[in-house]
Specification:
6 strands, six-stranded mixed beta sheet
Length: 145
């Protein structure tokens, strides 16, 4: 059993309740400082490029996105809580190129790639679902909703 949810369900209380019931978690993370710090620790060599078989319309950039990169890092969710309330798992991150011209510097070429990051926290082991499969399974919850 897996509890999937958007970032509104990324909380120690929800995770504890799910774990007490014997469920694994797969929940979108809020881009908090600990999450951003964890993403910064992902080495550039850890990112794996994928191409979506069907492009996805991106409202922010007004373009179709057909490529992304995925990586993951071990992550203890809810680091501000006491140690017994923290939950060990994986932070799975996908990043897509920043294509929204409103967010790019006007009149200047970028000196490096700019990305938008989206993450999820899961307690499902990598032996059960690899990085891309875990992300795909998590994103399927939106269809169910």
């Amino acid at each position: 059993m897996v509890v999937c949810g958007d970032s509104a369900y990324y909380s120690a209380d929800v995770t504890a309740a799910a774990r007490r019931a014997g469920a694994e978690m797969s929940v979108t993370v809020k881009m908090t400082k600990p999450v951003k710090d964890a993403i910064r620790r992902i080495p550039e060599t850890a990112w794996t490029a994928i191409k979506y078989p069907h492009a996805i319309w991106d409202e922010d950039s007004g373009t179709w996105i057909s490529a992304a990169e995925f990586a993951e890092i071990d992550f203890a969710a809810f680091p501000s809580k006491k140690t017994t309330d923290q939950v060990a798992g994986r932070l799975i991150v996908h990043r897509v190129p920043e294509l929204n011209p409103a967010t790019l510097a006007r009149g200047q070429e970028a000196l490096f790639d700019m990305w938008r990051y989206h993450g999820l926290f899961t307690t499902i082991s990598a032996q059960t679902l690899d990085t891309v499969a875990a992300d795909k399974m998590h994103r399927a919850h939106a269809i169910i909703e």
